[in-house]
Each structure stands twice: as C-alpha cells, then as structure tokens.
Design a protein that fits this description.
The chain is α/β, with parallel strands linked by helices. The protein contains ten helices and nine strands. Helix 6 runs parallel beside helix 10.
C-alpha cells in the first residue's frame, strides 16, 4: 500500500515549486531524543507542570534548570537521522521551501536545513528574564545552576515555550509571511500527532485549493483523514524514499 503512495509522493515533489514542511517529536525521536508525549514519553515520568511552566520556574528555578540541563546533556549525543538529511536535501532542490518544527533541538540545522523556524523555541538558547534577550549557550552541563545573565545578573531561562505561554512570535511571523506570499504546492507533515490547533490550521490552510498534503507518521493521527497521502512508517525511512530523485 505504501509503495504506491510513496511513488505518488515522489511525483508530487518532483513537480513542486513550493514546499512547506511541518515536523514534530517523531522526527527527533528517531535520533534518540526523548519525546514528551506518548508511551514512554517524558510527561509520563514527570508532571510537565513542575518543569515546563512559568509558575514552576518562578517557584524553583534550580529544579527546572536541572531538568533542562539533563535534557541538553542527553541531546549532545544525538545526531540527525536520514529523515533530517532528506529534508535538507529537498530544501537544496526546491527554491521555495520553508520548514516549521515543533522540536526544540537543532537536528534539522545540523543536517543542513537553513530556511526554518522553531515554533516552540530552542533548547540551546538561554534568555535573560529581565532584558528578554536570548543567545546560544551549548554548554551541558552548565557550570552554574540556575545560570545568571552575565550583563545584568538576572536569572536566565531556557528559550523554549512553556505551557501557558504564547508560541514563538518570530516563528509565527515567518510562517505567516511565507504562507501569505504564495500558494503552496506541497505540504509535508511528519512525525507529529498534530495536537496543536495552529499546526492543523497551517497545514490545512497552506495547501490552498490545489496543493497536496502528505502525512508521514508511524501511526494514524487525528490529522490523517485530511491528508491526500498518508504514509505509515518512520520518517527516517519514508522521507529518504520520497526525495530519492533529488541529487
Ligand atoms: Zn540580563
């Protein structure tokens, strides 16, 4: 069943002028990154309200930072998988390409993706809670927990979006600009259960009247009925197959 769909997806991509890609936790999980939701997910082991809310951080910044420090240390050992590389390869061959990821790691960048935004922030960045400036700090473990701003001495926080917070403004703006300026030929949504309404909204609205929506996931999702092509399997297996014709 997949074989025919993969062939079709390949044809669609080969004639696509503009491509919009949405990725989620499943794409990172194949690189060994712990996922938050689902079986064995981090949120089964720890209540997200104790580490991923502004209230938790205000109450106990050291506890929150120890948890993020451990996530960062774990990520240092993760490398991009064939799905990340396939998307970077696709980007090099499609002039009009934009990737929006829900992942906070930088595995897409490591694989060579360039035109992308992180809707839920970046775990390798710290942000000053007073000045609201953010910068990259790849040290893991961090030498001081909780870390403080070298400029003003205020607490630093991970530059990720927590529960109850507004999603990354810059990522929203860049996504909406990309989608407003063109009618997208192909939308790929990979490795996400698409629980967030804005993800569903963008995936559906971006394809316009003629675009093709390709979903890649190991299992059926709430989004599957809206997909033109629903490919079952790991993105690290499926994506390299559908971009095979791109050198
Ligand atoms: Zn500061």
């Amino acid at each position: 069943m997949n074989e025919e769909a993969i062939h079709h997806a390949r044809e669609v991509l080969n004639s696509a002028g503009s491509v919009f890609v949405l990725t989620g936790a499943g794409v990172s999980a194949e690189s060994g990154v712990s996922t938050f939701r689902g079986q064995g997910g981090l949120w089964n082991k720890i209540d997200p309200m104790t580490v991923a809310t502004p209230e938790a951080f205000a109450r106990d910044p050291e506890y929150v930072w120890r948890w993020y420090d451990a996530r960062r240390a774990e990520l240092q050992h993760c490398r991009p998988n064939p799905g990340h590389f396939a998307l970077a390869q696709l980007e090099r061959n499609i002039s009009d390409y934009f990737l929006l990821t829900q992942n906070v790691d930088d595995l897409h960048e490591q694989a060579g993706s360039r035109n992308l935004a992180h809707i839920h922030g970046r775990i390798w960045e710290v942000r000053c809670t007073r000045e609201d400036t953010a910068w990259e700090d790849r040290r893991a473990p961090l030498p001081e927990i909780p870390p403080r701003c070298p400029q003003c001495g205020a607490l630093l926080r991970p530059n990720v979006v927590w529960f109850g917070e507004i999603i990354n403004r810059e990522a929203i703006d860049r996504t909406e600009r990309f989608l407003a300026e063109r009618e997208v030929d192909t939308v790929i949504i990979a490795g996400t259960q698409a629980q967030f309404p804005y993800i569903i909204h963008w995936a559906q609205s971006s394809r316009g009247a003629r675009g093709t929506l390709i979903e890649i996931n190991t299992e059926e999702t709430a989004f599957s009925p809206y997909a033109d092509l629903s490919l079952r399997g790991a993105s690290g297996v499926i994506l390299p197959q559908i971009v095979r014709d791109f050198a």
